[in-house]
Design goal:
By secondary structure, this protein is α/β, with parallel strands linked by helices. It contains twelve helices and 21 strands. Bound molecules: pyridoxal-5'-phosphate.
Length: about 425
């Protein structure tokens, strides 16, 4: 029933995640609720280690910033790809070593640069302009900044336009033709130590060929840099490997990715006589399928379609609204029952676009049923908001049937946190 998702099973019509009954867990802890399988998380990381034994893997923290998830990733030997000084702090707290943290970003302030220099993490520099800003800040701080250059390789990943990041027209990276010159400039700048190249072409990519094309382009640029006298110690090819959200739309594995890019990478390194460290930055393919989001049915409304109104909307899981994403839905307390009706699953938010799942064949539904929205571990909680006065939900980790809360749910006080009515308005 669940294909490769070995951490999910159905027994007596109930959905189980790593041996835990999801319906009773929802009853016990309340909904909405994010539930993560620890074993699945570790397995996903190990699949990358097996496919790329010599590469460093940096977990993309924006996909899932849960401290416990990051702790497990650190235990499994991952570093972190971070995009803000806040994410640097979280990654360090989780135990990721500073040498394996790369600070990316196309819009870093002087304060961000200073924090990264103090934290001693490497940075990916996104423009010639940022290079000059960073050099000044590093000189003033009396530090040397080890940097990679974020390259815009101009590759089309065939994914949703909002998550294609390596197109010529995207805001990310230095245009390929400017890289070698910028690298030479960096070698002359006090306070700057360029060590390599970096790209990230997009997310939820289901075809290996864009990765192969990006690898080729990166190696072409590496050649220019080497010919201009630059040393390339690191090549970071980013993340972006897709996962199987839809039962009919399988995704390549880390092993497939390795089979596509490693021969190109290795051969081109041999030709150039260089031995750079390869880095990958997977986010989604590490966490997405580890986690389900449980949500309770409040109302089943027969209107021009059958609406199932649940207690989680795009405030809890934004992907369907943002990217028209498909997430598979299972009824956690009717998992083995036959599909009887077509339902559209909507959330509690006051917007027409608040649709979690369109036109799904499901067993007959009623108030109190619990739906499990699958593959919610990446860009799920990390994009949750308090829109419409909705506190954010709890996160739970399950290991061998035992559930532990890793982030408690917010209550109304979280909505008020930090707010203050000026005293003159209280008179
Ligand atoms: C978002 C991001 C990633 C992770 O992408 P996934 O599609 O989740 O694997 C990696 N690197 C950078 C620079 C990113 O912005």
């Amino acid at each position: 029933m669940f294909g490769p998702k070995s951490h999910l099973a159905a027994r007596n019509d109930h959905l189980f995640l790593e041996g835990r009954d999801c319906f009773f867990l929802a009853r016990q802890l309340g909904t909405p609720l994010y539930v993560t399988s620890e074993s699945r998380l570790r397995e996903n990381i190990r699949a990358y280690h097996r496919a790329f034994p010599e590469a460093d893997k940096y977990f993309a923290v924006k996909a899932n910033g849960n401290l416990t998830v990051l702790r497990i990733a650190a235990q499994e030997g991952m570093g972190a790809d971070v995009f803000s000084s806040g994410e640097i702090a979280i990654a360090r707290l989780a135990g990721m070593p500073r040498e394996r943290i790369l600070y990316n970003g196309n819009s870093k302030s002087e304060r961000d640069h200073r924090m990264a220099l103090e934290a001693g993490v490497r940075m990916s520099v996104d423009s010639r302009e940022e290079l000059e800003h960073l050099a000044k800040t590093a000189q003033a701080a009396g530090k040397d900044a080890e940097i990679l250059f974020r390259v815009n390789p101009d590759v089309s990943p065939g994914t949703h336009p909002k998550i294609a990041t390596g197109l010529r027209t995207s805001k990310f990276g230095i245009p390929a033709e400017q890289v070698s010159e910028t690298y030479s400039r960096a070698m002359d700048l006090a306070g700057i130590k360029p060590v390599g190249l970096h790209c990230h072409i997009g997310s939820q990519i289901l075809d290996i060929s864009p990765f192969v094309e990006a690898t080729r382009k990166m190696m072409d640029i590496a050649k220019d840099v080497v010919n201009a006298g630059g040393a390339i110690k690191t090549i970071d090819l980013g993340g972006g490997l897709g996962i199987q959200y839809h039962p009919d739309n399988p995704a390549p594995t880390p092993a497939d990715l390795a089979e596509g890019i490693l021969p190109v990478f290795q051969e081109r390194c041999r030709e150039l006589g260089i031995k750079p460290k390869l880095i990958l930055e997977p986010g989604r393919s590490i966490v997405a399928d580890t986690t389900i989001m449980l949500t309770s049915v409040n109302v089943v409304k027969r209107a021009h379609v059958n609406f199932v109104a649940v207690d989680a909307g795009f405030n809890v899981l934004a992907r369907p609204m943002l990217y028209d994403s498909y997430h598979h839905v299972i009824v956690a307390n009717k998992a083995g029952k036959d599909a009887k009706e077509t339902y559209t699953v909507v959330g509690p938010i006051c917007e027409t676009g608040d649709i979690l799942a369109k036109e799904r064949r499901l067993p007959l539904l009623e108030r109190g049923d619990v739906l499990a929205v699958l593959d919610a571990g990446a860009y799920g909680f990390s994009m949750a908001s308090q829109y419409n006065g909705q506190p954010r939900p709890a996160e739970v980790l399950v290991f061998a049937g035992e559930a532990e809360v890793t982030r408690r749910s917010e209550d109304t006080s979280a909505l008020l946190a930090g707010q203050n009515i000026p005293a003159r308005l209280l008179r």
